[in-house]
Amino acid sequence: MKSRAAVAFAPGKPLEIVEIDVAPPRAGEVLVRISHTGVCHTDAFTLSGDDPEGLFPCVLGHEGAGVVVEVGEGVTSVAPGDHVIPLYTAECGQCLFCTSGKTNLCVAVRATQGKGVMPDGTSRFSYQGRPVHHYMGCSTFSEYTVVAEVSLARIDPQANHEQVCLLGCGVTTGLGAVHNTAKVQPGDSVAVFGLGGIGLAVIQGARQAKAGRIIAIDTNPAKFELARHFGATDCVNPKDHDKPIQQVIVEMTGWGVDHSFECIGNVDVMRAALECAHRGWGQSVIIGVAGAGQEISTRPFQLVTGRKWMGTAFGGVKGRSQLPGMVEQAMRGEIELAPFVTHTLPLERINEAFELMHAGKSIRTVIHY
Ligand code: NAD
Ligand code: AHE
Ligand code: ZN
């Protein structure tokens, strides 16, 4: 079938809106009509050419919601008409990782996902007869996409797709980082570096966890209003200080914060986030994604003196088990999504979403088909 899609033909170039061919779902696969998709910084990261797994041409997008159109042979957990959120972290429930009880990092389809193909090693997308790669197992920048059955969370059909698509990545990642990875406790102090969709979701999660002080840090002060809305008690612009930001945070708190979160993808800020964690027990969670070849560093003494450095993918959330419940929480108002949607645009204008993000003007632009 034909599908409108925004295709990334080459790194660093705008997406092109074209009509691609989408082949029917094969065994264990599902054809989904995407209704809405957020644009996450990771899409921009891969488009930039910095992603070691970046492949071109490809259909980016991994923060979507839609409706099942057709299922391939053997698919039993979803049916045409079901409302779904595609998952870039699948949940097969059977692999070593799923059964470990220790992680959400299912490996059922991860290897082929990273190569931009379906689990059988081939692509369902083509343009002018040439294959186009899938992306993160989702490719939500195509109106019709094919995903593995294990990469779909079935959600309440009454959910507002324009909002709950953000549970496909940004908001879930931030909330999960707080509750599953850091396990923030009432009264804990928190520092959040970077106030995009991820950082603001971390702040929302910290407030849910009844954190005490929540320090929001960004070089763009335009982000502070929403940070306060979600629960930040202090807003800090590193540019207002002539000393390292970690020193500023330590001086504000005495010994540093109980938890810090890096939500930017900047390895220097990752170091600062670690070094503003409390002596003896502070922990720092890396959420941001850094480019090929970049590495983190700090003095080992920072760890010897009790700080812990951690990371999280999709906030440690198991998508098929947990996302439906999070959608219900959002429908009950227990997870606030509306303020994240600062802009909405039709697919044809998707490149403006990237411009808004790079200009620091948006939190999330949601694309509708
Ligand atoms: P975003 O671009 O919307 O937000 C980033 C924020 O960081 C912006 O507000 C920007 O002003 C701020 N910033 C930039 N440089 C800064 C600096 N030196 N000091 C302080 N603030 C600074 O991005 P996003 O969509 O929120 O994504 C954030 C990061 O999280 C990206 O690296 C993305 O790839 C990553 N991410 C990771 C996961 C995961 O599962 N680990 C999931 C989603 C996104
Ligand atoms: N492909 C990159 C890494 C990209 C990355 O770290 N992705 C995050 C999700 S970002 C969502 O916006 C993640 O969860 N990674 C775990 C996984 O299995 O993909 C690289 O460096 O190769
Ligand atoms: Zn994302």
Automatic annotation (TrEMBL):
Keywords: Metal-binding, NAD, Oxidoreductase, Zinc. It catalyses: S-(hydroxymethyl)glutathione + NAD(+) = S-formylglutathione + NADH + H(+); S-nitrosoglutathione + NADH + H(+) = S-(hydroxysulfenamide)glutathione + NAD(+); a secondary alcohol + NAD(+) = a ketone + NADH + H(+); a primary alcohol + NAD(+) = an aldehyde + NADH + H(+). Transmembrane segments: none annotated. PROSITE patterns: ADH_ZINC (PS00059). One of its GO terms (molecular function) is alcohol dehydrogenase (NAD+) activity. CDD domains: alcohol_DH_class_III (cd08300). Belongs to the zinc-containing alcohol dehydrogenase family. Class-III subfamily. This is S-(hydroxymethyl)glutathione dehydrogenase. It comes from Vulcaniibacterium tengchongense. The lineage of its organism: Bacteria, Pseudomonadati, Pseudomonadota, Gammaproteobacteria, Lysobacterales.
